[in-house]
Write a structure and sequence with these properties.
heterotrimer; A alpha+beta; B mainly alpha; C alpha/beta; A: alpha+beta; four-stranded antiparallel beta sheet; 5 helices; 4 strands; B: mainly alpha; 17 helices; disordered N terminus
């Protein structure tokens, strides 16, 4: 059959337990450019493929601080510098009254930062991805679990890697064309 | 399953019925959207509420044409149904985010099967609420003056006004709820993308799913982001009704100028929110055969939440009454008198019955676990909470400091059309939602299954 | 009925379906240029057009809100205005008029000119200054230099401005309802007039309202010389017949009685409502009365014995509500009490004590007391009052007699009776009705309307401002010129003559009464100017006439025309019993309406919507019934009752009025008009149906029957007691003189100290360091509740009229309101007035809650309202403890009517829909004076800057000024111990404060009253 450049080798598993142990062993075997797919979050899985720092928290923190200072400074600037007016004899910098909006701005910016930060770090939206070419991958959003070793991995070898994957007793193994 | 069993047996009902697998869950929930044909019942409901939505649009059109004078508002009662409905809807809008966020943080697994439509409900409720502050303006076409935007007048909103706080609180709340809800949807949209037979459906769901493929890395960031959102949404949801209560508490009007308002408004919001969740959940689980996922455990827990918040609300009323007498301020004591004996006294009595008296049946397990009874209780509570806002807004305003300026407030047909219209719009949107999106979070349901546990491989 | 009758039927309003506007607009568009006019006349010929012209507008809101149909109406109105030469609208009169100004006498855009003139009602003038913007009169103020006005006016004077611009004013001369030209009228009129010459005018009858104009009187004489057998009749529905008859009885001649209230320590009013507009000399009396209400100087004491709750009664130190018939008895008792032989009056126990107490006090106040009898009391009461004043030596001190002000002091009822009998007898060939509306307001028994309709009067001509009920029954209707459009002269109550100076050329080429009478005497070309000037030339012949004339116009009155006191000698008068007082049966009282008087102001929106002083009622005339009586009859407010008097009956709604005497029903005249115009037609109930010549004012034997159904009434005040069910609310703080002397600072509850605040001073807002800090003090002791400030404010600030329906919904727009409160026993209450403008709080609750900063504070301490910025959340109003903010719930302002555009004050924004508005201390006036002061580089002098309400106040109750200037009047008043702020405990720090009310009761009566009320409370 005609060969197209290979993106990676994909093994299918039936249970979370299997995929996690498989992923562990793959990582131990020295494969680094690997990934695993599951229909629901499995904490252990990310550990297993050696993924630790996700960086969303930092983005959120920055967003929050931005919102907080931005919110207060906006109000301060408006009522003290841009257009000071005497409103019911209240001081120009009525900080207790400014707290509410400051708070809301903090939440808003932090929240949006978390969401868009997460999407950005995940590289989403990404309508096309080679793994979708594998017909059975449709079950990755239902009840199947997949492990992939990318061809870009240093240790990758079409024959060796396939054999290694077979040793993990997957339901099936398929080649992912790129 | 037979509602009797859990009552007689001491053990708790499970959050998900036994015998389900990843596959069955996925199929059951996604089939409602993908496979299930459009039923006549759905069409009738959809059409009916569509018509009521039309009525709302008509009422709004006439309002813009003639001005708020078509409503019953006047001097002294400058705020009428519009603000009552606003506060009522916002309150209802609290349950969704509360369930998704706070219960998530509290690791309440039972939330997973109700949070999705609770969040949707929140969005629609907040949308209804959001209309009113705009509609009730004398010059609604200038609503954007409440936002700080650079303009040729070099003039800005007045940030000491609770109404500006409202604008920020409500819009923030809506935005955060929206993203929260959408983020939660992404994995399920992916599921639908992969399940859909219809090419167009697959494409649309695919676009919305943004290419989600369930990578472990993605899941990790996703979970973190979701957790952070929950953490942010929790103080937010509490702040929103606090801010709404400031609209009243900051004013100097007897009956408004009260420090008890923030906590008791928030409690009231959750109270009515859960009532609305139940009023939606009970019919839905029946109609779509979801008793396995929305079990009596959920109903029971929600009922308990209502009972608790209901008691906080009762405490609020008690404190108001007590302060009316204890403060010795004759304006406050008159307010109390006016609530008990004034022309609107019946609304106050009805309120006491709906929010304090009747809901006490929730102490009894067989009221908490009988869907029909619970439905009735929820309906009563929602009525009561609407009355509460009416009492706060109208009774306080219509007789304030100068006896010479006392007046009465009579809602006009336009007030009613707008109010009922929003209810119609709310259900109209909800009918759409149940048809095109999974009303239960599929991927979170999966995690509830025993097989989702990763057993340590030795 | 003859064909004329039929024709006049045809033009009756509401008979046909309304006109298809689209069609008409098309017709108007198709026609251009000169053709336009003709086709308009064609158009005017069609019945639909007439129907449109006479269209009655639906009641209540719709006439103000139904933009579409009114716009359509105005398209046609506009067209007919063009017809009437509307183009000339802002032209000044051709004749030279003399402004009353310091600045150079020419137009400076944006800068008004003032002209002295005079408004007169029933022949009594109120001297005025009229503010004119580029030739458009926009505001009427009292002539401060004139001894009668002293700057004050009354509601009718203020509101007469709106009549000038009333779009329903008759705009064309008509014959049987069809428009005709003046020349065609002259042609048609010449023949009949000529034919009267040989008959010496035996068939000519002229009917006018009572007037005091010397020039007109002179014209009348020359006319009667020309036609010796012609007759000149005078009719006034609210007349002073019994005043003159009383004088006749006492002195054998009709004299005018003036009072010097500033010299009076004791005032006794026998049913005289002399502290309200419409009473001759009211403005002066209010000022004099108030000048004696300062508790720190010697206070007067006022007793009011009255048959209807009035604002005068509300101010009394002691008030005795009794049936009108009882008052004669009371007067007798009082008279005999001080040694006048008048026969003892039959009085109840309490009443007798009351009379005795007054008698004792009067005896100790020789020459410093005054007894005033009301116009509605029979002659004998007036005679008794004269006798008492004589006996007390008040004549020459507090009471002055002069010649009658009215040019023809005849009995107007008799005069009209003669006329009607002549009409019936067919003696009248030509009836000329100059002003007035007898077809509507003549005594019912005369059947004037029928007599007028009948073919027995072949030629009927009506001159009037409106196409009213009378015009409808006449052949010719000549549209009259408003007094601001026409020259004239008139007398104030003290006889001083003012030249009536027009400010604007007639909007619709109307004719003045002078011009018409000139026409009768054959000088058809004579203008009013020529007539009036010629007359005064005769009076003041000499080289300096121009000087004299110019001065008269400038000052607003003519030197030396004031009547000199007349010494009259009392005839040894016996006092014939006129009324049999039977207190058992129910009595009916007829009173002019406090707002629209005898009906002449029915189409005046400002007055229709003006809350009547004691009931706060608008747009209607429910009958007054006392609480006790209402309880007996089992009726409450808004219930319908049937009044049956001498075979005639009518349905009316009830208003239960605190302080209304028992067994007395008061009905107010002037309502139930059928052809008043869009504002007046159809409102209220026509009380003239019950009124006949025998009983012009009151009668016993009324039957009141409760019928099913009720009628919605629009009162602007929520509750008329200060005290809610829980807690006393000291809104009006008052005490009596002795208490005040003991504890002068009783009114000042502890308010938060100025320095009790955590807030720093807002930079630039340390008010004490500002050049000006505006403030207002309102003296509740001086305020007589005459409502004048409300109308003045409405006129100055372009405040919209909203209509009955909207008032009912609680949406009236008055920036300044006068709250009326009643305390104690509802049948004999103590009443208080409290004018409430914006308090201009230094810590304004409204400002804090406005999301868009549409209401903020000025450095001068004003709570500014920025209409452009307002988005209409109404939060400010909710948070305003004084509820002085007003909101445009709908588009209340009339943007189409061209006349109203001319009327508005160009210096005040015309607010649109959805905007909050409120009192601004007349910011436009402040600004103008500040500009002038800065130009002149001098501070604004105290008193030179006055708010509209202050300026119009006849009793000086409202004082405005700079509280930073320790010598300003307002600063001094605020320094007084009885100065207090309303709801001061809220720490709003109002700039408007009140001076507590101090009553001066007679100790001898105090315990009596308390005893009485004690008994009352036991009974109830």
């Amino acid at each position: 059959m005609k060969r197209t450049p290979v993106y990676g080798l994909m093994a299918e598993f039936a249970t979370p337990t299997d995929i996690v142990s498989a992923a562990k062993r793959t990582h131990e075997a020295g494969y680094r450019k690997i990934d695993a797919y599951s229909p629901f979050p499995i904490e252990e899985l990310a550990e297993a493929i050696g993924f630790h720092r996700e960086g969303v928290a930092l983005v959120t923190l920055i967003g929050g601080l931005l919102g907080m200072f931005g919110g207060y400074l906006l109000q301060y600037w408006i009522h003290n510098i841009s257009y000071p007016t005497n409103v019911g004899g209240r001081p120009l910098n009525s900080w207790p009254a400014f707290i509410v909006v400051t708070f809301e701005m903090t939440i808003l910016f932090a929240g949006l930062a978390a969401v868009f930060g997460m999407l950005a770090l995940n590289g989403l939206p990404m309508p096309y991805h080679p793994v979708f070419n594998v017909p059975r991958f449709a079950f990755a959003t239902k009840d199947r679990f997949f492990l992939i070793i990318f061809s870009s991995d240093a240790k990758y070898d079409s024959v060796e890697t396939r054999r290694f994957l077979e040793s993990l007793e997957p339901r099936s193994i398929s080649e992912v064309p790129s | 399953m037979d509602p009797q069993t859990p009552v007689t047996e001491r053990r708790k009902a499970p959050v998900i019925a036994p015998g389900h697998t990843f596959a069955t869950i996925t199929d059951k929930i996604s089939s409602i959207v993908l496979a299930r044909p459009v039923t006549n019942a759905w069409l009738v409901g959809f059409g009916f509420f569509g018509l009521i939505t039309m009525m709302l649009l008509y009422a709004i059109g006439y309002l813009f044409l003639r001005g708020v004078g078509i409503w019953g508002v006047n001097i002294p009662v400058g705020w009428g149904f519009a603000i009552v409905n606003f506060v009522w809807w916002i309150g209802i809008g609290h349950a969704g985010t509360l369930i998704s966020a706070i219960l998530l943080l509290l690791r309440q697994q039972w939330r997973n099967s109700i949070n999705r439509f609770a969040e949707a409900m929140t969005l629609f409720a907040v949308a209804c609420a959001g209309m009113f502050p705009l509609l009730h303006l004398g010059r609604p076409w200038l609503f954007y003056w409440l936002f700080p935007y650079p303009n040729s007048m070099n003039y800005w909103p007045q940030f000491r006004s609770p109404l500006v706080w409202d604008v920020f609180a409500v819009s923030t709340y809506f935005t955060i709820s929206l993203v929260f809800w959408f983020i939660g949807l992404i994995p399920d949209l992916a599921t639908l993308r992969d399940r859909a037979e219809n090419k167009w459906a697959a494409m649309i769901y695919g676009i919305l799913a943004m290419g989600w493929r369930g990578s472990a890395r993605h899941w990790k960031r996703y979970e973190k982001a979701y957790l952070l959102l929950a953490g942010l949404a929790t103080p937010l949801v509490l702040s929103v009704h606090t801010v709404v209560s400031f609209d009243f508490a900051v004013a100097i009007l007897p009956g408004w100028h009260t420090t008890i308002f923030p906590p008791y408004f928030v409690a009231g919001a959750i109270y009515s929110g859960f009532a609305m969740v139940l009023m939606l959940a009970i019919p839905i689980r029946k109609l779509y055969g979801l008793e396995d996922f929305i079990t009596l455990r959920h109903l029971d827990n929600s009922a308990k939440v209502m009972l608790a918040t209901g008691l906080i609300v009762a405490y609020g009323y008690a404190v108001e009454a007590f302060m009316g007498w204890y403060s010795g301020n004759h304006f406050d004591s008159f307010l109390l008198w006016n609530r008990l004996h004034g022309p609107y006294r019946f609304t106050y009595y009805a309120l006491l019955f709906c929010n304090i008296g009747f809901p006490q049946v929730l102490w009894f397990r067989n009221w908490r676990t009988r869907p029909l009874r619970l439905f009735v209780v929820s309906a009563v509570i929602l009525t009561g909470m609407w009355l509460e806002r009416f009492v706060i807004v109208v009774i306080s305003l219509h007789r304030d400091f100068l006896t010479s300026s006392w007046g009465m407030y009579y809602p006009t047909k336009w007030d009613w059309m707008t109010f009922i219209g929003t209810i119609g719009f709310f259900l109209f949107a909800f009918f759409l939602f149940v048809r095109i999106l999974p009303m239960i979070s599929i991927f979170e349901m999966r995690t509830l299954l025993p097989e989702a546990e990763v057993k340590e491989a030795e | 009925m003859d064909d004329r009758g039929k024709k006049s039927e045809e033009i009756c309003p509401g008979k046909k379906g309304s006109l298809d506007l689209v069609a008409v607009r098309k017709r108007l568009e198709q026609t251009k240029g000169p053709e336009y006019w003709r086709s308009l006349e064609e158009l005017a010929g069609t019945a639909e057009f007439r129907e449109m012209m006479h269209r009655e507008f639906p009641k209540g809101a719709s006439e103000w809100l139904d933009g579409v149909s009114r716009r359509g109406f105005l398209k046609l109105m506009g067209a007919s205005l063009a017809l009437a030469g509307m183009t000339a609208c802002t032209r000044q009169p051709l004749e030279p008029i003399v402004p009353y100004v310091k600045q150079p006498e020419e137009f400076v855009p944006g800068r008004p000119l003032f002209y002295a003139s005079a408004f007169s009602m029933r022949g009594y003038a109120t001297p005025i200054l009229v503010e004119s913007h580029l030739g458009r009169p926009t505001k009427i103020e009292g002539n401060a230099q004139h001894p009668v006005s002293l700057g004050g006016t009354d509601v009718f004077t203020q509101a007469s401005l709106l009549d000038l611009y009333d779009p329903d004013r008759s705009q064309t001369l008509t014959y049987l309802g069809d428009p005709y030209s003046w020349s065609s009228f002259l042609a048609a009129f010449h023949g009949p007039l000529a034919s009267q010459k040989p008959l010496q005018g035996a068939g000519i009858r002229v009917l006018t309202q009572s007037f005091s104009s010397p020039a007109l009187a002179d014209q009348m004489q020359s006319f009667l010389k020309l036609y010796p057998s012609a007759k000149w009749h005078v009719y006034e529905p609210v007349n002073r017949d019994s005043v003159y008859a009383g004088a006749q009885m006492a002195f054998g001649q009709p004299v005018e009685t003036q009072y010097k209230l500033d010299k009076a320590d004791v005032i006794v009013s026998l049913d005289a409502d002399f502290l309200y507009g419409g009473y001759p000399g009211f403005t002066r009396y209010a000022r004099e009365y108030a000048s004696r209400r300062d508790p720190d100087k010697s206070m007067n004491r006022m007793y009011v014995i009255e048959s209807t709750m009035t604002s005068t009664g509300a101010k009394a130190d002691h008030r005795l509500p009794v049936q009108a018939a009882k008052i004669e008895q009371f007067a007798r008792a009082l008279a005999s009490g001080i040694g006048v032989n008048a026969g003892a009056g039959q009085l109840g126990d309490a009443e007798a004590k009351f009379a005795a107490a007054i008698g004792d006090e009067l005896k100790t106040h020789h020459g410093s007391s005054v007894v005033i009898a009301g116009d509605n009391q029979p002659p004998v009461v007036h005679a008794l009052a004269h006798a008492i004043n004589q006996a007390l030596g008040n004549v020459g001190q507090t009471v002055v007699y002069t010649d009658p002000v009215s040019a023809i002091p005849v009995n107007s009822t008799d005069s009209l009776r003669d006329l009607v009998s002549d009409m019936r007898a067919g003696k009248v060939d030509m009836l000329i009705i100059l002003g007035g509306n007898p077809a509507y307001d003549a005594p019912a028994d005369f059947g004037f309307g029928d007599a007028l309709k009948s073919a027995k009067v072949p030629l009927r001509i009506h001159l009037g401002l409106h196409q009213n009920e009378t015009a409808e029954l006449c052949h010719w209707h000549v549209n009259e010129a408003h007094y601001l459009e026409a020259w004239g002269d008139t007398r104030a109550y003290d006889g001083t003559v003012s030249i009536v100076q027009p400010l604007i050329a007639p909007l619709y080429n109307g004719k003045s009464i002078y011009e018409f009478v000139a026409l009768l005497s054959g000088q058809s070309e004579a203008t009013g100017y020529e007539v009036v000037k010629a007359y005064w030339q005769k009076q003041h012949s000499g080289p300096d006439f121009d000087m004299f004339w110019r001065r008269a116009l400038h000052d607003g009155w003519i030197e030396g025309t004031t009547f000199t006191p007349k010494d009259v000698t009392t005839k040894a008068a016996d006092f014939p019993t006129s009324t049999s007082s039977d207190t058992k049966s129910i009595e009916i009282n007829f009173r002019p309406d406090p707002s629209i008087w005898d009906g002449r102001f029915s189409n005046n929106g400002w007055l229709q919507e003006l809350p009547k002083p004691v009931s706060k009622m608008t747009w209607d005339n429910p009958i007054f019934i006392g609480p006790a009586m209402a309880a007996r009859l089992g009726v409450q407010k808004e219930d319908l009752v049937e009044l049956e008097l001498q075979g005639k009956s009518m349905l009316v709604p009830v208003w239960v009025q605190a302080g209304q005497p028992d067994n007395t029903v008061t009905v107010f005249l002037g309502y139930g008009r059928t052809r008043a115009g869009r504002t007046g037609t159809g409102f209220g109930f026509d009380a003239y149906q019950l009124r006949n010549s025998a009983i012009p004012w009151f009668a016993a034997g009324l039957n009141v029957r409760k019928v099913s159904g009720s009628y919605e009434l629009a009162s602007t005040q929520g509750m008329q007691s200060m005290d809610a069910e829980i807690g006393q609310r000291p809104l009006v703080r008052e005490t009596d003189l002795d208490e005040y002397r003991k504890e002068p600072n009783f009114a000042q509850e502890e308010e938060p100290k100025k320095d009790e605040t955590l807030y720093p001073v807002v930079p630039g807002f340390d008010y004490s360091k500002q050049p000006y800090a505006w403030g207002m003090a309102i003296d509740l002791n001086s305020c007589v509740g005459c409502n004048n400030c409300i109308v003045a404010c409405q006129s100055e600030n372009n405040i919209a009229v909203v209509g009955k329906d909207q008032v009912n919904r609680g949406r009236h727009m008055h920036w300044l309101r006068v709250d009326t409160y009643y305390e104690g026993d509802r049948d004999q209450p103590r009443a208080f007035f409290q004018p409430v403008p914006c308090m201009q709080c230094e810590n304004a609750p409204c400002e804090v809650v406005c999301p868009v900063g549409a209401t903020v504070h000025s450095t001068e301490g004003l709570n500014d309202m920025v209409y452009n910025r307002c988005v209409g959340t109404r939060y400010c109003s909710n948070n305003c403890p004084y509820k002085v903010r007003r909101f445009n719930f709908l588009r209340f302002q009339d943007w189409e009517t061209p006349q109203y555009k001319m009327m508005r004050n160009p210096n005040v924004t015309v607010r649109s829909r959805g905007v909050m508005e409120k009192c601004t201390y007349c910011i436009q006036r402040i600004t103008q004076h500040r500009v002038d002061a800065e130009r002149a580089d001098t501070p604004i002098k105290d008193g030179e800057l006055q708010t509209a309400c202050q300026q119009s106040c006849p009793s000086n109750a409202i004082i405005f000024g700079n509280i930073n200037d320790p010598n300003s009047k307002v600063a001094k008043l605020k320094g007084l111990l009885r100065n207090y702020s309303l709801l001061g405990e809220l720490n709003t720090r109002p700039r408007t404060t009140y001076l507590a009310e101090i009553r001066n009761p007679n100790p001898q009566l105090e315990h009596l009253a308390t005893a009485a009320s004690a008994v009352e409370s036991e009974n109830s």
